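Methods — Computational structure assignment.
A single polypeptide chain was analysed. Its primary sequence is given first, followed by the predicted tertiary structure written as structure tokens.
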Amino acid sequence: MILAVLVALAHPFIAESRWLMVHLVLLGALTHSIMVWSTHFTQALLKTRPGLDDRKMQSRRLILLLIGTSMTLVGVPTAQWWLTVIGASLVSVAVLWHGVQLWRRLRAALPVRFRITIRYYLAAAICLPVGAGLGATLALGLDDATHGRILLAHTMVNVLGWIGLTVTGTLLTLWPTVLRTQITPKAEGRATQALPGLITALVLLVAGALVDLRWLSLAALGLYAVSLLWWASAVLAPVRTKLPREFAPASVGLALIWWLVGIGYLLVRLATTATWADFADGFGQTSAIIVVGFAAQLLSGALSYLVPSVLGGGKTVVRAGQKWLDRWATARLVTINAGLALSLLPIPSLVRVIISVLVLIALAAFIPLLFRGIAAAATARRALADGPRPIEPRPSTNGPDHLPSIWSGGQLVAAVSALALAISIGVAGDPAAAGLGGLTALPGQTSASAPVAATGETTTVTVKALDMLFEPSSVEVPAGNRLVINLVNEDPTNVHDLQLMGQRTPRLPHGGAATLDLGIVTASTQGWCTIVGHRQMGMVFDVVAVGGSDSAAVTAPGGDAGHQTGSPGAGAAYLQSATPLLDPDAVVQDSIDPVLAPASEEKVHKLTLTAQELELEVAPGITQTRWTFNGQAPGPTLHGRVGDIFEITLVNDGTMGHSIDFHAGALAPDRPMRTIAPGESLVYRFTATRAGIWMYHCSTMPMTAHIAAGMFGAVVIEPEGGLPAVDREYLLVQSEVYLQQGTGDRAAGTDAAEVDADAVLAERPSLVTFNGIANQYDQEMLTAKVGERVRIWVLDAGPNRPTSFHIVGGQFDTVYSEGAYLLGPQAQGSGSQVLGLQAAQGGFVELTFPEPGHYPMVSHIMVDAERGAHGFVRVTE
């Protein structure tokens, strides 16, 4: 459970983190618990003779289980199939061995009530080896349809079989026990009647998935739901008259509700998805329901009752432990369940992230509370052993067994308030994501055009899908020709398809091929890959009708790129720009050196800044008329220490009024920040009194246009004694570029357009850059060596957009923002993933790189990374 929490916290940096989180809970924590507690309940019910399955034998099984689990948890993320197979085999052997021992106990015992529970355990033990084998098969790498079918079979036989049958068998006696009420007379009979239906449903469900009979799997899942409801009608009946008053029954009860919700959700998806591949694509929500809603709550609820009870020592000792496990129960339960429900809704990504953190905190709180409960029980036991039992005051309650209720109005308000605050912060942090997008053109939609006569000719083209591009990316077709496209997927890491003129190929695995016969082409149009995010990453294909009419413009809908990492080749999907202006084959001509020069020993720094308007490169192959200081955007970097004096002469050599504002100096703005006309100059003098990275910029109105056009720069002020030495030091200034419409199509030799002021006001940036040129550090990479300490200063010049600076594959051990350490050198063992900055804010991060490779650096506001705010750090030995 602790490992699951740690993986959840560090998931951006861990391969296959979602798979790991799911299996650390289900295969790790829950399977181990099933092995332990099913043995405990079997012995409690059957009371078999000592020595039949002694503790040493049980421990050997658990060791075998843990070894197999560890090998599986390592083998799948590292793609070591042999390790996965060995691990799954060891897990299967351990569980089958466990089942054999349960069967021996059942045979040796006298007839007793509730022995049906052990039959549930035996059926469950048969399921897990089947599920493990199916899971190992998934690790082979299958086509989409086969993967979807095996995924369904693997999930159902494990969740509904191994876990589900164990839970239903155990709750026959455990549920009324935790509610502190009697078992209903019909409970055992209903449980006995339900078991054949549950087993039959599992067999048919798996068979239907394996032989590709979806209707059979759908009917089987329905049969399982009906059998489960029949079981619940008597087994769970006590809750109608005795509501939970402790955390344990409340958590278990809510887990069962989420279990039913998960089954219902699977029924709907099985009935509504068109293909097995589509079914697998949307499995993330199913995993969240099963792992968070069902498994995690079931485990924490059951252990909250079982651990204090098994420790024993009398009511005083047991209650001492349970008191800790009931702490903050209302707040935890409301946060987990309401938070999970909210996260399943179509909410903005930032809101979902913040709510997920709250849910994780509420779930993880069980672990320290469990340790505190065990310690409290041990303390109470020692106190009883040291003297006479104190007379306990009877709690003021009318509840049975005189137990105080966990339900608290104050905690309810606190939990709801925390969730509401999370929503507010998330919406405020990314308000655009909370809005409604516009309508997009229909696939294959074209404008009205005059009729085109068929020529009787056929244009055939072979198109390759590779690295988030179609090659070629367009085809010219004489109007009236029939068009046939042969699509081949040569991408070894992704499936792709092509939707064009109302038709779509299947999703093709690596090496797959398909043909589109599109009929007569009468007008130009555009197609794209329909895999989520691929169109936005540049996978579009243009059909240009020569002699035909142009189609209506097709606007790409918003999307979310996958989080992929690696070298420039393997990580192209993570870094490919969504901006159609950016040509991935273009070469940057005048890259900006990102190295921060050391501060000089001078105490007075004199510099002349000349305002100029000239054409500069803003992306490979794209230029814009930029308004600059000293002919560059960003302007020159000033670097000094606290106490240094800066004397800046501003000369306006442009065609309009300009000015300058240094955030690093504190003084009245009236004179030094005034706008001066072309040909004039002024002197701006200030003393640096505080450390940090400060912005300077033109403050002439409209200020948005002047900053967006390039009139900004950075001032780095170190403390008087300087900062700790590092091996390399870089400076990145993020800013936006607003191009006039059609800039990417400008003919050679014509003048470059100036900033589009309307786009600035509408907050529609064409590009987002580091140091003024989009994509430049994809080609001119920052460099470092393994083990070197690297400091990267970051300033967000805006004028409008924030940044969330992140290095893929790296972790920051030092984070400094706006004059203060958020994570200082003294914070041993802690780390950070991003430096978040609003416009005009700045700071730095420090890190070391663990191994050679190409580490992408991005603004983790991913739409801006795709607009050009990205690059690489190339790390060598």
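Note: DSSP finds 21 helices and 28 strands in the chain.
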